[in-house]
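Board notes (copied after class):
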Amino acid sequence: MLHMNWDKNIKRYKFEELFRTNPDDTLSPIRPIVVNQVVFDITSRFWNSSSSSAGVNFFRHKNQDIAAEEKDDRLIIKGFFKK
């Protein structure tokens, strides 16, 4: 997992609770998320396993749990748990 200060507002989510796989094999967030201060809404698409968005390749983290904090109707992703 990424190193961070854990506090009571950070929760653990399953990858599939926050992302869906679209028919064209892209990934999209199920709700607005923030990664490295970049906001992605539900219309965002992550295209393939060789690209990254906001410095993160989401395909590498499929099936990993996610540490995130809810704030202002968005989920701020703090890190990913190792498999």
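Comment from the instructor: The first helix runs from residue 15 to 18. The mean pLDDT is 86.
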